[in-house]
Amino acid sequence: MADDRILCLEKLRVETIAGRVLVDDVDVELKRGEILGLIGESGAGKSTIGLASMAYARAGMRITGGTITLAGTELRASTALYRRHTRGKSIAYIAQSAAASFNPGMTLMDQVCEAPVVHGVMGRAEAEVYAKKLFRTLQLPNPDTIGDRYPHQVSGGQLQRVMAAMAMSCRPDVIVLDEPTTALDVTTQIEVLALLRDLIAEFGTAGLYITHDLAVVAQIAHRIMVLRHGKTIECGDTVQILEHPRTDYCRALVNERRDAEHLTLSVPDRAAPPILRVRDVTAGYGTAAAARNAVAVVKNASFDLAKGETLAIVGESGSGKSTMARIVTGLLPRWSGDIELAGKSLPPALGRRPNDILRRLQMVHQMPDTALNPRQTLAQIIGRPVALFFGRGRAEVRARVLELLRLVGLPEEFADRKPGQLSGGQKQRVCIARALAAEPEVIICDEPTSALDPLVAEEVLKLLKGLQDRLGLAYVFITHDLGTVRRIAHRTAVMLKGEIIAQGPTEQIFSPPYHPYTEKLILSVPEMHTTWLDEILQKRGGAAGLVAGAAERPAEVTPAARAAAADAGAVAETERMAAREVLGEGRGAAGLEALQTEVRNLKGMMEI
Amino acid sequence: MTIFGHKAPLTAVVGLAIILLNLLVALAGPYLAPYGETQVVGGGWDPASAAAWFGTDQIGRDMFTRLVYGARMTIGIAFVTTILSFAIGITLGLVAAVAGRWVDALISRAVDVVLSIPLLIWALMILNVLGQSLFSLVFTIGCLDSTRVFRLARALGLNLVSLDFVEVARMRGEGLWWVISREILPNAAAPLMSEFGLRFCFNFLFIAALSFLGLGVPLPYADWGGMVKDNVGGISFGLPAALYPAAAIALLTVGINLVVDWFLSIDARPSGAQAEM
Predict the structure, then answer these.
(1) For residue range A468-493, what is the model confidence (pLDDT) as tens digits?
(2) CA-to-CA separations, A580 to A571, A583, B235, in angstroms, rounded
(3) ipTM confidence
(4) May I ask the CATH architecture of the domain A276-521?
(5) Which of B168, B174, B186 sits opposite A371 (nearest CB)?
């Protein structure tokens, strides 16, 4: 073992073909069996670095400088054929969106076996046996038959695990994980996170873990590197970054995350009359006439919203929280129940609502990119509601637009820009300005911060809160992020499968006694210390981990892991060592036997 | 070379040059042509000479003069036809995409009925009924061709109508016309522009085909398709007369397609960008 470093990027530089620098002189070092977390906001160049470590650059980008050394070979200097054989075999990639990364026309087994067969690591039959073993390791249901399914037939969390199996199918030295849990629900995220961690530990693979969530990376990485605008800001041990960040930027990141763990608002004492009342509303897709066959997405939901108050609606994807927003705004007509705005009942369908009601009830969407017409200037976008609802003249509209821009913290010069020239946070401010232009009483915010970077999202939340204090707005705030709820909501409603299962002042929802589902949600949000995942798994009964002993993750890379990665022939030896460790921890003879069978299988495979 | 702020490859420049040349000939026709459109200047199928550069046609009219006047007629009709078909197709397509399920089903099925019979057969039928005139020709082809434009506009509209900014406009209580003209059309303009070039070509070939069948531009006007038909008999005697208008058709078609290819590539990705393998 001459060199401990498996992957080494030196003075890496990536530019777009137009010459804009995306990654600027970044050095990354990865030891065998070590996991390095890459943290940064969007545009920080983390995914670009992840891909560049395979000597790959997306269309429109070029690697223009530096060296990429994988297991002693410089990839940029080697041939395209060599690089092609390296990818998938020695270094593998797990993408953020599993759903978009699978070929919908091939079975999962075909896709998992593709790499080992193409790279000549295994024959098709052995690859299938090995894939099934991986499926079992990753705790996929029916590991023997799940490979026959197509990508759309399994859930998002399962698909992400199959992708992990795909990446591991050639036993790579290095695995690049590009936000593998970001697209998943919090409760699924834990399972995938735990399995990924154990998988990496078991195989002694080195990992590059890319994410924007400090708390997630705290659970899995040995070291963390913080990036911004393509430059390294800080690099150090996980504990050091979390406890004693050296730079201001890191401190801001860490503090932002910690703030989310505390409550900031309490219900106002004064009992303001509700401005929005929702009573026993049921709705789904399809008309009420066809309701016998259609499934209701929201069932018997009721809540009140007082003037100047924020009600958060929390839930996982598929819980019906976004549908709730569509019902209130009338985009989806309700089947039954009643919605009142300031004491007057609203017609179910959007087309029947008078202009005045449309004006008083505004909405801010999740994706500012699609919520703004790219062909209109900000003045047109913000000015239209002013002209439409208040019938003002051209000069008056212009003056109002500038006033609104100032109100949401944007410079007046932006009035003649188009959305494409703005950043994500700025676009969301424009959306808020457009909602304010109608001078509404209630704004429905459908995950307005979930598409934004944490620090930018915090600014937007502050803006919303400030506007509420000044203008007395009431918000229905739909989100899946409990940290956001803690910071902005006076009251909280928790949704599960279309029903509101708990609601009340936020304080009360977040303190015991919890509803069991609320508790599960709360416990699923990663916290900012390195032992959180293990604690949670223990609470859950340790069901998710394969190697239960991996819970005590050594701060240093285990010698076994190093040995495993260093020499393919030593893999079996490692398995045996792992088995012994497991036995030592009293996992029982059954576990040992299973492991030894695996060892035998593996040995057999190698001889073939 | 840069055109409209976009880098144009050599093929696009060549295509633009061909189109400009054709437009120039079409506009300046009467000044360029040495003889009158229907003037007989020699015998049938005279070979090329200094007086008649491309020889004469089957009844002795100057081929070059006919080609110049033909450019005017053919390009002019194709242009008007394409504009008509886009006006109809885009309006119906976007209304179908925005207005709701029933309207969509009604228009779409009607279009399916039209498309279920080959357009050439439709055109022959309608033109036989309406009689041969420039107006009926433009009207017939415009209406028939709008079914193809309808398909594209509706597909583009359906993609755009599900975007949040259209939803915002609807929640603001905007009418159908505002949603179509302000929110959707500007965002569908780029693909529709390139489709315009392609449909222009097809219309142009369609008119040529109809003229070849004797139902196109009425006599004695010159148009390229009709000229091919009139002179095709000469080919069996080894006379090249039919090839000149045929070559003119081919040249303009190639030129337009070169430019359209470039249009389509502008939106796709920065030019010259490929993943670095």
Answers:
(1) 989 989 999 998 888 888 888 889 99
(2) 14, 5, 91
(3) 0.76
(4) 3-Layer(aba) Sandwich (3.40)
(5) B168
